Every structure is written in structure tokens, then in C-alpha cells.
Amino acid sequence: MSAVRDRTANIARGSILVFVTLRNERVRLPYFLDYYRRMGVAHFLCVDNASNDGSAEYLAQQRDVSLWTTKASYKAARFGMDWINGLLLRHGIGHWCLTVDPDEFLIYPHCDTRPLRALTDWLDASGIRSFSAMLIDAYPRGFIGEQTYREGDDPFEIARWFDPANYTIQKNAEYGNLWIQGGPRGRAFFAQEPWKGPALNKIPLVKWSRQYVYVSSTHMLLPRSLNLVYDEDGGEKASGCLLHAKFLSTFADKAKEELDRGQHYSDSHEYRAYHAGLQDDPNLWTPHSRELGDWRQLEELGLISKGNWA
Description:
The chain is of the alpha/beta class.
């Protein structure tokens, strides 16, 4: 990686940091940055993987962004996690670090009235080092490509619906993390092979330490104790979700680009499924879909939890 703008000297002690790898996400970046700024994020550490749509140029202009670029293989870098783990080790130690994609938006209990700092202060006081957030795919009512997404728009003004159920969950015997699958991608693109559907379990928010490392995306970490973000004795631990704004008008072009690049997991089988399923511009909405409300709605559905955080 080559540093384009290294502003990490400006990171204050205790700042909340966002880490992100991206390619050709220029149209998403203004809303993404503003969303997390409003939440209380102080600095963004970004790796741009050879974008040609102006993403790197835009990020380089942002005063709270440090930017690195690379033309190296995303696949060979363990799908970008080697780059992110390197930045976390160099700049994240002692900070609460949120690792997300440009189409992932953290929701947590009380997020409408309490900044992210309130959550991390409570986690610190409770001796909790990692915070889970299930990925929830949001989608429009109607064909995916029907409404054009424009730069700066709130994506959830278009993608306003989600699956309230239709999820499977199991425990990973090796790492101890939960493995969640299903949702609209499971039923629309992997109905015949649901076990091949994308994982929806994430542990994106971690108080970083020198001994930590992400093993596979943000699905699981080492040491394994960081993956125990759930209660097996009948109680509930606090958790959030990542609203996933993948299904916008930009999705078809993005899916084709990533399929052509062949840089994703398991010979890009996920993008092969997307490409096949997008031939008829599908409508993911069903009569069972639920329109997005606030965090309380997600708590009532059991998709997030306040746990002991009153």
C-alpha cells in the first residue's frame, strides 16, 4: 500500500475510528462519511483498491480521512483483510475501531439519542471488548434498478424494506462465533443452495489491541474470546445491526464489475449468483417484507438487543 494522505498524526487519544476497504464507491462516499461523522467518528482510515471513478481523489480531499492506495490483488490480500489488519495494528491500538464497507451502516440501541461514544463508554465500563452487528439487507419495493440512487442521497429512502425473519443460525465450532445466513439474498439468489449464501454475522466494533486480528472479513477474530458476543444461558448481550444498502440502482453494474474481476471468495460464487439472478431485474419485496422503522422496531423483532444497556 502507498500512502496518499496520511493524516493519522491528527488522531486524538480515544478517538473512534472507521476502517474501510473500497473500490469504485464514489457515489456512496458523501453519505457514508456524513453518516458516521454524525455518529461521532473522528477519523476514517481507507484503503482504495485501484478505483477509477474518482473515489481516491474525493477521499484525499477530506480532512478527517487518511488514504492508502494499492493495485495489488484483493483476493491475495485475503479479500482486503491483510490491509485492514495492518492499519488496525499500526493505528487502532487503544481505540474503538469500526470496520465496515461503504454500504454498511451501524444501528445500535438508542442510536437516535446517544452518540457512538455513549455506547463505547458503556462497553468500556462493562469490560466488553467487541460488539456484534448482524447484517440486514435493505431493498426497495419494486425492481432494484427502478429508482436511481444519486450521490449524497440517503440510500434508505429507496431501500426501505427488509426481511424480519427468514434467517438461520449456528455456532462455528472452531472459532466460537455465530454463523447467520438467509434474508433476501438467501431466498432470491441462493434458494437452491442456501448453505452457500453469504454470512450475515459481523463483529465490526472492537476496542483494538496488539494481539487482535480479523480472521475472515469481520465475521470472526482471534483471540476467540472476542467472538463470544452472545449469551448461551438465556440472557441477552447488547448487539446492533449493519443496515446493508447493497440493493440500489448501482448494484447490477457493481456485480458485473466484481464478477469480471474474479477477486472474491470461492471463485466469486456469490457474484456469479448475483449476475444470474439479476438478468430479470428482480423485485426482492414480498408480502412478508417489513418497512424500516427505528432501532426499537429491530429490537422488537429480536434482530438487535439492548442487553443490560438501559
